[in-house]
Structures are given as structure tokens and as C-alpha cells.
Amino acid sequence: MDNCEHLNHHPKAYLDALYRASRIIVEPDLDSTKVLQAILEQAVMATKAQIGVIHLVKGQYLKLAAICPPTQREPLKEPLDHITVTGSTLAAKAVQEKCHQLISDVTRLPDHIKPLLPTGAELAVLFHRQEHYIGVLSLGHQEINGVDQADQKFVMILSQMILAAVQYEETRDFGYASQAVAWLGLFGAEWQHTIHQKTFSIDIYTDDLRNLITSSNVSADLLKKIAESLDGIERVVDDLRRIQFTSSVPLEAPDKTGGDTRIDDELKIMVARWASNRHDIECTFELNCPTVRVNIPAQWLKVAMEKLVNNALKAMPKGGRLTVATQQIDELVHITITDTGQRGIPDFALANFLKRPVRRPQGNKTPGTGKGVLIARFIACSYNGDLSLVYTVKGKGTQLLMTLPIVTVSST
């Protein structure tokens, strides 16, 4: 807390805000959205700012993460929600120049800017991990000189708490995903043996039952249906073995050493196979990376994509259209998986989607745990990619985006 000697503007307000922020980030049911909002409110109260905004850096854009007062979210959401890092806002300027920005008088040249609200002074403070910029906390004050260097130093300390909250959230979320992947490896080793064992036992019991019951057309039909069901289970086992695992050896967790997979070829083969049993699904491809290779082993790509594609197929029980598309943007391949499922992702699952397993409201019977997408995201992130939700709309469907780095060929 050596930096606190500079906090001589409103020292008690600053220290109270820092104390409350430190309590917020260790709440047991931490949710990053709520934490960012609560910490931003502390910054606004301590500096007496008119408005506060937190943006997260998402590639070439700044994504709105929190705003205070919350009543400004709807009227300002559109201009604040998707700002380019090359834009003219103070937050964008902070990212461009990789340093904090303080304008004590926004009405004077050369610092004149056009704020969204009639503010007199503005401040933008970066929070970053080494050279990786995570986001920006911006404050606007009604009065000229309403924010100063003391406020900047206070917000710089507060921004480190935001960074700690974001990192803690990431660590906990990927802890869940790691457990899911460990479960997947164990399951991969045991599932086939277990199912074969159980179906064999059912077959034995059926023979015993056949010898005990009185012969009749009804009993014969029932026994025939049991036998057909057993055959069906065996066929499913064979299909799963071919689709998910190349051998009975369990998959180990991603080792981050990468791979060399021709993305379009692999996707077309995999997705067509998984969708082949759904004659009510129109499967379309928009593959624009015919020669591009991605830095992930094909084995792990199959596991991740199987989770996403099968989720999409389950979302369309009455049929629909599944679209898989690829596009290279800079050094990444963007893979989108789009379904036309009528229900979309349930509202109760959205807050923590791609973060942790689903917690259903009491009495809710909606199927799914969310572990599949956790596994897929864990795999993508293990190879310096990511998985994100583009949209989910009732009556329209859902689109997910997976990004993976391309294999760059070094010249010799």
C-alpha cells in the first residue's frame, strides 16, 4: 500500500472504497459481471464522478462490461458496447497509447473531446497483465478539474483489484473445466467396457426370463423388443467409439504442444458423420480455409467439436439447419457453429455460460449440464484459442465461435 501516500485528495473515501473492493472480490459466489459492477460503483462514489464505465479488450474492440449509474446502460449501450480500439474515445486512446489518460478540461484544445454526457473532466485507467491489456476503467466528472492525478492513482490501485477479480474468476472457471476434462479421460477408458458388460448381463437375464414366462404373442413381442434394444445399444457403442476415440486408451489432458490439422477437411468429415443420422437436419458448410492448418491435434479438435455439434443437434429436436463456417482473420481461424433451435440457451444458464456447470432453478427439467461446452472451451484455450457465445435468440437459434491459431510456416 506504498502508493496510498499519494491518495491525499479524499483519503478516507479512497481507503473505504479499497476496503470494500477487497471484500467484494473474495465473495464465495463470485461472478465477474457483478464484481466489476460493484467495484466500478466504489470508484464512482469515491471520486464523485458523474459516470463510470469498464470496458474489456476483446481483440480489436472494447466490450462494455459495467456502467455506473446502471440507469445509463440502456441509453448508452449502443455507442459504448462495441468500441474499436482505433476509435476516438478516451478509453480507446488509452489502449492505443498503452498508458493511462487524464483530461482535466475536456473543453480545451488540444485535449478537447466530445463525451457522451456533458462532462468537464475524464479519466481512463488501463488494467493489464504484463503486456496483455485486459480492460479500461473510465470516469467522467461534471466539473472541469473534477478528476485529477490523485484520483488516477486511486483508480490505478483499484484496477489491480479488478485484475485480481478477473484472474480469480478465470482460475475458478477453468478449475471446473479441468475437472470435466479429467472426467472425460477416465470415461474414455471405461465406458466401452462398462456398457458391453451391462448389455451382456441384460442378455443373460432375458434368457432366464424367456425360460420362466409362459409363451404368448405378447411376451414374445416384448422379448423381441428387448433384443432389438440391446442390438441398438451395441451399435451406439460402436458409433461412439469411432466418433469420439480412436482407441480405448483414455485421452490425456491437452499438453499445449499443438498440432498440425487441416481445419476444413477435418470439420467436413467430422460434422457430416455426426449429422448423418439426423435426416431432419440440413447440414451446410461455409468453409473458407481449404489450405489452412491449425495448431491443435486432430484428436482434441474432434473432442471439442463433438461437444458443440451434438449440443446444436440436440437443440433442434424437430429438425432445422446446422451451419459450420470457417474464416481466417489475422493469425486465427474463426469457426462458427450455428443452429436454428427454437429455444436457444435458457436465461438461467446464460450468466455463467462457458464459465461453470449449469445450476437449474428448483423444479426446472431442462436437460444439459453445460460441461460439454466447458470441455470445448478448455481445449481451445489450451491451444491459445477460445470459445465464445455470439448470440442465442428464442425462435432464431444459437451461434458459437471457436478461435484457433493457425500453424505458421517459418522460412528456412
Question: What's this model, at a glance?
Answer:
With 412 residues, the chain is of the alpha+beta class.
Which runs of at least 5 residues are low in confidence (pLDDT < 50)?
A: 1-8, 186-191, 240-252
Task: State the major sheet.
Answer: 6 strands, antiparallel
Q: State the shape.
A: elongated
- CATH T-level topology of the largest domain: Beta-Lactamase
Structure summary, number of beta strands: 13
Structural class: alpha+beta
Strand content: 15-25%
CATH architecture of the largest domain, please?
A: 2-Layer Sandwich
* Count of alpha/pi helices: 10
CATH superfamily of the largest domain: GAF domain
Name the strands of the widest sheet in spatial order: 3-2-1-6-5-4
Taken in chain order, the helices and strands follow as: HHEEHEHEEEHHEHEEHEEHHEE
Euclidean distance between termini CA atoms: 51 Å
Helix content: 40-55%
User: What is the C-alpha radius of gyration, as a whole number of Å?
Assistant: 27 Å
State the domain count: 3
CATH classification class of the largest domain: Alpha Beta
Mean pLDDT: 77
Question: What this model shows, in words?
Answer:
This protein is an alpha+beta fold and 412 residues long. It has 3 domains: 2-168, Beta-Lactamase, CATH 3.30.450.40; 175-244, Orthogonal Bundle (Helix Hairpins); 261-405, 2-Layer Sandwich (Heat Shock Protein 90). Helix content is 45%, strand content 21%. The chain is built from 10 helices and 13 strands. It has helices at 11-24, 32-47, 73-81, 90-97, 149-212, 217-244, 263-275, 298-314, 347-350, 371-382, and strands spanning 51-58, 61-68, 82-84, 101-103, 121-129, 132-141, 261-262, 281-287, 293-294, 320-329, 332-339, 386-393, 397-405. Strands 3-2-1-6-5-4 form a 6-stranded antiparallel β-sheet, with helices on both faces. Helix 1 packs parallel to helix 5, helix 5 (149-212) crosses helix 10 (371-382) and helix 8 (298-314) packs antiparallel against helix 10 (371-382). The longest helix has 64 residues, at 149-212. The radius of gyration is 27 Å and the shape is elongated.
